[in-house]
Amino acid sequence: MNGRFSWFNATSITLGFAFLYIPILLLVIFSFNESKLVTVWAGWSTKWYGSLLQNQALKDAAWVTIRVAIVSATVATVFGTLAAITLVRMGRFPGRTLFSGMIFAPLVMPDVITGLSLLLVFVALGLDRGFWTITIAHITFTMCYAAVVVQARLQDFDKSVEEAAMDLGATPVGTFFQVTLPIIAPSVISAWLLAFTLSLDDLVIASFTTGPGATTLPMKIYSQVRLGVTPEINAISTILIGIVTVGVLSAAYFTKRQTERVERERRKAFGAAG
Facing residues of 44 across strands? Predict the structure, then answer.
């Protein structure tokens, strides 16, 4: 029975991954198609990547997307780290449940609801929608992911290191920047990369909070796909897939390094105790 169950699992996983990744693989392959017809293969060519350099609308959208992703990921990582420190180090305090719920609500909130609620806020405040409204929206929904990543690291943090630094005369602020932050740096970097890739990929929330002159790359791709898929769309999508893949793999690498470091510290501590 176990053998049949394992075979069923292997088959299900294989079919699931094939369903998810074969279309992406076909998109990447057809981005190198010589023919302008995306359904007809006419040989290998990189000319569509070259034509992207002549498409000013796509370049403008890419520039907006990169700026939004960098700014929102940076601010979200700072706020997410502070939120994680508050939840882990402050213990129980009045309003902790409400604070925690407000931080992590975007994790389970549908993107449509998040985008619509932010749109109503911006309209009520009389803010002109554009680059900064998209950035604020992305900070709002990526901060929770950054907080989760950093919080996981802080929960396994050895506080005796901080206590030793403070016994030697370091201030709490100095201890954080000189001791705590370097140790949790891999998780902070992972949080930034995760926030960056989430901002880079977002379509729904950006569509609600955008304005004239602030079209992101996913929005531009979606608007052009509605008129028909072209090799240029395949090419820019392939580049976007590559950037996201590098970001995800980098985040996984830093997370793995962090896990291995924690494990080495634990083994060293057990060895010293023994």
Answer: 33
